[in-house]
Write a structure and sequence with these properties.
The chain is an all-beta fold. It is about 0% helix and about 50% strand. This is DUF11 domain-containing protein.
């Protein structure tokens, strides 16, 4: 996994290796998987963490191949598709379902729909904002 600081320069995004970050900075994480074998690879599952003191930026997750995308709000104990719902007790004492804000995600996961062919590469990326 590699991390890049994302900055805007004359309306264009510029990426530099993220060695340090400050509150408000945007970091893009890229996870690259290469099948170095001579056989297709099946069953790949890619998980990207949301580091402490950062928040996932809604809609920033992408993959280079069709994949099932799920997220966790409990440090990877469970994953579900977006939008994530949870039950909370309202001010009136009644239970109600609410949509979890993407900034509360703790991990992201992709399950590619196909095999990773021999010698091929798949890339997954997402962005976070530094708190």
């Amino acid at each position: 996994m590699k991390s890049y600081l994302v900055v805007s320069n004359d309306g264009k995004e510029v990426f530099s290796e993220a060695k340090e970050a400050a509150p408000g900075d945007t970091i893009e994480y890229r996870l690259t998987y290469t099948n170095t074998s001579d056989q297709p690879l099946a069953g790949l599952v890619v998980t990207g963490p949301i580091p402490a003191n950062t928040a996932y930026l809604k809609g920033s997750a992408h993959s280079s191949v069709p994949a099932v995308f799920t997220v966790s709000v409990d440090d990877g104990k469970s994953f579900s598709a977006e939008p994530v719902k949870k039950t909370v007790k309202g001010a009136d004492g009644q239970q109600k379902n609410v949509t979890v804000d993407p900034s509360a995600y703790t991990q992201l996961r992709w399950a590619p729909k196909g095999k990773l062919p021999a010698g091929k590469v798949q890339t997954y990326r997402y962005r976070v904002s530094v708190k």
